[in-house]
Task: structure prediction
Amino acid sequence: MNKKAQINFQQLEQDFNQLRAETVAQVGEKDARYIRRVITVQRTAELISRVLMLLCFFSLWFLMAGMLLLAFAKILENMEIGHNVLHGQYDWMNDPNINSKTYEWDIASDAGSWKRIHNHEHHTYTNIIGKDRDFGYGLLRMSDDLPWRRKNCWQFLTYFNLSLMFEWGVAYHELAAERVFIGKKKKNRTSTLSDKQLKKMFFSKAGRQIFKDYLFFPLLAGPMFFFVLAANIGANLLRNLWTSTIIFCGHFTGDVETFTEAECEGESKGQWYYRQMLGSSDLTGHRWFHILTGHLSCQIEHHLFPDIPAHRYYDMAPQVAAIAEKHGIPYNTGSFFKQYGSVLKRIWTYSWPTNKPVPLKENKSL
Amino acid sequence: MKATMTKNRWLTKALTNQSSFKSYLEPLAQLVRPKWQANGFNAVVIENRVESEQVFSLIIRPQRKWPGFIAGQHLDLQVEIAGVRYLRTFSLSCAPKYQQQTGLIELTIRQQEQGKVTPFLANNIAAGDAINISAPRGQFTLPKNNQPLLFIAGGSGVTPFRSFIQELSLSEPQRDVHLIYYNQATKPLFALEWPLLMNTMPHLKVTMIDTAQKGLINEQQLLDHCKDLEKRVAYLCGPHGLITTSREILLQLGVAENNIHHELFGPKPIENFTIDNDAEVVFASSQTTVNTEKDHPQTLLELAEAAELNPTSGCRMGVCHQCKCRKKQGVVYNTLTEQFSDTGEEDIQLCVSVAAGDVTLDL
Result:
């Protein structure tokens, strides 16, 4: 593995900028057609799933099929549509319905809140301990940068709960960071929104989602209320598990590195690219698998180029890997089972006090 | 009523996370009708007619619930080019009576040499194509009395006057109308139609002036052609220079200010506007800062686009409000109203705003 000092960051910056420019030049009609087609599939699946659930009068198999189809629709909506549209990947289309400013997704988290925390904080300060609140979400100890605490003993259980309740974790993320309900206010608070505004946005979006999935559609089913309610809960849980698992594979595999604020002060664009590469990991798989992950299976490419239409990452990946190899930078990729295994191992490892530094840390001298 | 509206909107949002059920269903509807849109009005092009080398007319059949228009109004036309939606504003060039009888409307459009949309419309839009249009808009309409009229047109600015005169020929053929139509070394538009209209309207006078031969508009020229202009209500349409000059002349000749109406084609030129210093424009959300040059003023929309921020945009002349953006602080100059903004937080239209100092935008 290369020492950071040996990397030609200027050249690295040029290489990535060039790849970016080449891809941006191709973006156009094909991308517009693609995202509209995905939206069409998602809406069709969602509508059919709602109907199937109501058909549970005839057979509970309809309920099962409806639940799976709704989970699929929600996954597609959250990952390939919502996440990517909210990143502004399709803003150039000038279509008011496919625009990061106006889009709202089918998840408990308010789109505006997510854009503030995720797009800005997580993507700018990726894996900088103390700056990127997505690193462990303030719940898990994922590196020895954080001191061990007793609660880390059962963080495997915490992780499992977080995965099941993932949409609520994302929804509550900003409020937790701003200590809206509990905890002492931080002195260096930068949020321009008051607690009252944050609370209002949280409850407004969460209320609408609960109304839709746990009241409106179950009520439509009349006597089958509880069956449809259960199917909706099931679909949301499946979606939560899937999104959480994919996202953990993107940032918490064994080899993913962390950074300190001091390291990243005044970093150049080339160094930023380098940090994005070390802070993310990819998954290999079929094309349909990539689409279901919203191309977060190409997390490295996404972190290098967050605003390029995500379906392009698939074709960019070999070129990014080539640039990584040229500069001697590790390119962290593997099958889902290999990567997820290493995530679980990492959660387990840091559940316990570590007194020896993790081997990778020695490469991080600036 | 209002309570139900809000409740409906809440329900739509809760169930679809979209602004309307129609928007939610738009992709599905497009499976059957590819260019159908939930917003605006859907329309079909019946003919793309060549008027001159650079000018063409689109004859369009709007969907039935399109609200109809008053002579002199304009609308926004939307097309998609390489996946990008563009919106442009055009005057309706036919009479409302024509639309009532045939269900058709006409837009007469000049191809902009460096433009993206008008050459596309001229070359790529043909009979049978689906497009999307807005409801008609605009205050450039005739008064509800029978005062004599003076129309001054420049180039393709003649389009609303065709609408006025066609409409008058059907509703008030006795109306006293004088059209002075300026062209620069190009053939006047609708050359075959004016004599026919003069046949039906005994008090219609059409004066064609080729500025290449007779020079730009001036006081003597106007007086020579129209002796009683101070008695008339004046309507001006064309490029910025023609409007400002003819307006000044008419005011000097004693035409009352509230008897002069004008419609500007294209954005106002911003070359005349200068600021004292180079300034800094901060796009806060995207953490981008660009510098403006005092000798080369650019609109905030142009600056944002140059910085690859993909701002939403529409007509690019201050009409459609699609590029509305929150200004956090700083003073901007509005080229449309020719006013400086307040220093505080407010919504501005990027396409007609120029930074008059350091500005921070929520973009």
About this structure: The first helix of chain B runs from residue 2 to 16.
